[in-house]
Write a structure and sequence with these properties.
InterPro entries: ChyE-like, Class_I_gatase-like, GATASE. This is Glutamine amidotransferase domain-containing protein. The protein has 286 residues and is α/β, with parallel strands linked by helices. It has 8 helices and 12 strands. The strands form 2 sheets. The chain has a 10-stranded mixed sheet with strand order 1-3-2-4-5-12-11-10-7-8, with helices on both faces. Strands 6-9 form a two-stranded antiparallel ribbon. Helix 2 packs across helix 8 and helix 6 runs antiparallel to helix 7. It is globular, with a radius of gyration of 18 Å. The protein starts with a strand and ends in a 12-residue tail after the last helix.
């Protein structure tokens, strides 16, 4: 389903294909729609604050073929400026047939469309790291990073988020993580020899909270569009399924669900990957 945040006369338009790799809690689905629809509205808000304003058009495709989804044809993505891969209960380091099929599609797009933009959240962050040869797996501690968490910004992160603060706060929902950033040597020819995949921030639990390649890639381990109800419901789902066994940790995380977070700033930074934002600050992705 395509959704359009209609532009003003002087707006640009960014077109993003959202590859949905999971479904939200049923109550969230009925109230706010799929993960792709939730992200569409979140990016529409971020686009309205771009300088100049951006309209954001998205299309959502549920790609988990074993649960009734489908993989988009290569031609379907030709009218888009980039894609966003959502979070998922699946392991990005897994060998599920649909994950391998998605990796093959991403590899073809990366090679065939040098101007295409790749973005990902949580599972999507990990899968894009895997695509480029990074290392993905469970956290060495074996525990989960949950709820409202602080992320310490590297200097490049401060530039990307246009802030002089040394940290941001976002909602987390993961056990797996990227433990080693991709390099040109690990990427199997997908990266130029002088390319650098930069980590923009980290936490004590997860040192690699996001990856950045100018004009090409932006990922975030944390969730940028979760609200209080979504956080509580997603945690409850994982406790019920037995994924999260430390119930006390889950309860403490749920108690942080109401706290304000910087998800809109992350969305604004992702849109700057597509179209430069001249907001008058000294920070720029040079």
């Amino acid at each position: 389903m395509s959704q359009l945040h209609k532009p003003t006369a002087d707006s640009s338009v960014v077109r993003i294909m959202v590859l949905e790799t999971d479904e939200p809690h049923p109550d969230t689905q009925s109230e706010r729609g799929s993960f792709g629809q939730i992200l569409h509205h979140h990016f529409a808000k971020a686009g309205a604050e771009h300088h100049p304003p951006l309209a954001v058009e998205t299309n959502q495709v549920f790609v988990v073929t074993e649960r009734g989804g489908r993989m988009p044809d290569k031609e379907e993505l030709d009218g888009y400026d980039g894609l966003l891969i959502t979070g998922s209960m699946y392991d990005a380091h897994g060998e599920d047939p649909w994950i391998l099929e998605l990796l093959a599609l991403l590899k073809d797009l990366w090679r065939r469309k040098p101007d295409f933009h790749f973005t990902g959240v949580c599972f999507g962050h990990q899968l894009l790291a895997r695509l480029l040869g990074g290392t993905v797996g469970p956290a060495p501690s074996g525990d989960w990073e949950l709820g409202h968490c602080r992320i310490d910004l590297a200097p490049v992160g401060q530039r990307l988020f246009r802030t002089h603060d040394r940290h941001i706060h976002l909602h987390q929902m993961h056990q797996d993580q990227v433990s080693e950033r991709p390099t040109p040597e690990s990427a199997g020819g997908l990266l130029d020899r002088d390319a650098e995949v930069v980590c923009w921030g980290g936490s004590e639990h997860t040192p690699v909270q996001g990856l950045y390649i100018p004009n090409r890639l932006f990922t975030t381990q944390a969730h940028l569009a979760f609200d209080e109800d979504m956080v509580k419901r997603q945690i409850a789902m994982r406790v019920e399924r037995g994924s999260i066994r430390d119930v006390e940790h889950a309860d403490r995380a749920s108690e942080t669900a109401h706290l304000e977070h910087d998800g809109l700033e992350v969305a604004k930074a992702i849109l700057r990957l597509f179209v430069y934002d001249d907001d008058g600050m000294d920070f720029a992705e040079r």
